[in-house]
Amino acid sequence: MASSLVSSSVRDSSHSSSGEIHLFVGPMFAGKTTSLLRRIKSEADSGRNVAMLKSSKDNRYAIDSVVTHDGIKFPCWALPDLMLFKDKYGHEAYEKLDVIGIDEAQFFEDLYDFCCKAADEDGKIVIVAGLDGDYLRRSFGSVLHIIPIADTVTKLTARCELCGKRAFFTLRKTEETQTELIGGADLYMPVCRRHYVSGQVVEAAKSVLESQNVKSDSLLEGTSVV
Fold first, then answer.
1. Where does substrate bind (predicted)?
2. Is the model's pTM score more than 0.70?
3. Of the ranges 2-11, 86-95, 155-164, which one carries the lowest mean pLDDT score?
4. Over 60: is that where the pLDDT of 214 sits?
5. 104, 161, 203, 221: which is the annotated catalytic residue?
6. Residues of the domain holding 84
7. Distance between CA atoms of 94 and 121, rounded to whole angstroms?
């Protein structure tokens, strides 16, 4: 009796730890979503049940689809939080899922907890795509937090828009300073290290000049003409 309980426990443990986590990171326009969709479609073609998730904050191209910058679409669930997915999808349907794709993962605050539960407890294959850094090259959201629990991590690169070399960073074209500013080529471009640094210097100089101009205008307005 004891041996059967042990073997049953081993089988349950084996099943619960059979999940995987795979992560695609990089700057904007590096093909993260394309890589994610390619993997998801491959899993679906192999007969596995798949579901795609994205943040409801990202409605640039479609509300209910993950869309690459060149227009490739895949239907998805748009959610404010990942932990809502199981209830919205249905518990019975969730149990039958094999693979979960997550796009624009930097927008999900509960990314780490969801990935742990889906892979470690529920035995799902979780494929994640997201920005590893913001426009200031700081950690963006909790994407980097799942590296220690990931089976694989793939750092993708784009092509520098200014010189054509490999681009590792995202340069913001506007003066907005909030971390979350959703947009495409109208707001961002991929750049190499040299052009990221020079671009940041140019933007900083522009801000200083504009600030000085504002101060000068204020002084002139406050000066009495005799």
1. 188
2. yes
3. 2-11
4. no
5. 104
6. 20-156
7. 13
Task: Write the CB contacts of 198 (distance below 8 Å, at least 6 apart in sequence).
Answer: none
Q: Is residue 180 part of a domain?
A: no
Query: Is 94 annotated among the ligand-binding residues?
Result: no
Residue 118 within any structural domain of the chain: yes
Q: Which residue has the tokens 């495409």?
A: 184
Residue 4 within a domain: no
CATH number at residue 44: 3.40.50.300
Q: Is 109 a catalytic residue?
A: no
Structural domain count, the chain = 1
User: What mean pLDDT, rounded, does the chain reach?
Assistant: 84
pLDDT at res. 96? 96
Q: How do residues 104-119 score in pLDDT, each as one tens digit?
A: 999 999 999 999 999 9
Q: Which long-range contacts (CB under 8 A, 24 or more apart) does 208-212 make?
A: none
CB 190 within 8 A of CB 167: yes
Give Cβ neighbours of residue 30 (< 8 Å, ≥ 6 apart): 156, 157, 158, 167, 190
Residue 73 included in any domain: yes
> Distance between CA atoms of 210 and 94, rounded to whole angstroms?
54
| Residue 64 · residue 15 · CB < 8 Å | no
Least confident range from 36-45, 170-179, 199-208, 209-218: namely 209-218
Q: Which pLDDT score is estimated for 74?
A: 87
